[in-house]
Hints:
Elements (H helix, E strand, L loop, with lengths): L1 E2 L2 E9 L3 E8 L4 E8 L1 H4 L2 H15 L9 E7 L2 E7 L4 E2 H7 L4 H20 L2 E2 L8 E3 L5 E3 L6 E2 L22 H4 L6 H17 L9 H10 L5 H4 L5 H10 L11 H17 L13 H29 L10 E9 L4 E4 L2 E5 L2 E6 L1 E8 L6 E7 L5 E6 L9
Helix pairs in contact: 4-6, 4-10, 6-9, 9-10
Amino acid sequence: MNYGRYEIVQELGKGAMGVVYQAQDPQINRTIALKVLREDRVTSEDFVQRFLKEAMAIGRLSHPNIVTIYDVGRDHGTVYLAMEFLEGRPFNDIIRESTLSAEQIAELAIQLADSLDYAHKKGIVHRDIKPSNIMMTPDGKVKLTDFGIARIEDASMHQQTRAGEILGTPVYMSPEQVMGQQLDGRSDLYSLGVILYELAAGSRPYSGENLASIFRAITLDNPKDPAEINPGMPPGLGKLIMKSLNKKADDRFQTGSEMAAAFRDFLREMESVGEPKVSERRKIPYTALIAAIAVIILFASGALYFSSREKVSNSSTSMEQAVELASVKVESMPIGAQIFVDGSFKGKTPQLLDIPLGKHEVRLSLPEYYDWEAQLQLEGKEEVPLFVRLVPTQDQGN
């Protein structure tokens, strides 16, 4: 199948607005990422305009930490973007599977703050900074993607977003975004602070069972300093992250360059007190990380194998499962939302799922409604009710 001149190779993933494919540009024999507007969005001119806005936003940017856009076009009754094909992993995988040092977290903060500073100076606010919109390349470089809901400081575009309309992913929203207020670049820096907190503390600063409780926490609650939660993190790093999360925008970092400079100062302070030079471990060892994960998987597999053998030898009549499960009853309003647990599709609501005990990422997705996502901690075998009221992307009465 082709879109324009681009030949589809395989599907890479789906989002709230589009489907991303790996594709080939036959004119110059180049592999690209092709983002195609979802068919159920084509019926809305509002979504079409936002999709085209993404092309305008990224097309105005040229930065080593921001994905490059090559082309935009229409075909098969929809709209597509031809973009730089990125080899690497989304940041949510990095957060879930690895533990980073304070220096590595600071280096990532510098790269992302610098890229946001560049975009903000071009008049663009991303408004949806979250781990899945950040890619990590094998050499440790981060790439910021998906400007689909970026606010462009252009008079011709002002009327395309209604006053008070809430866009973005709830967990990473700034207080002013939750309250539907006017946004500037400091909102992006807040969202970056949430990601840095998650990296340093091992958990998000705010959580909740539903959208209302998450919004309440973002606007009213004060999270613990990540250095208090994770003693392995120096207080200086925790202080910078907590400044990023200040509920008052005037008390945060005012620009990306200011934020990047603060993290550079932190790295210099770490060196001055005898820490290993940052240049010696500047990049996240991507290949080493993969190898470490593989060793952990092999070790865990081996432990499970020997544990199973031991159970069989101790009791020929016992057929206990190695993994304890909890039943989770997932419901939504409206019904029919797709359920994803740790990135894997589990069916549609309502659904009764058996999920291993422990912490899991749960996401519900339904066309014309914002995705809902939260961390779910399962500690017992009793049935856990999970009811989610999804928020429409636009006035359903129109």
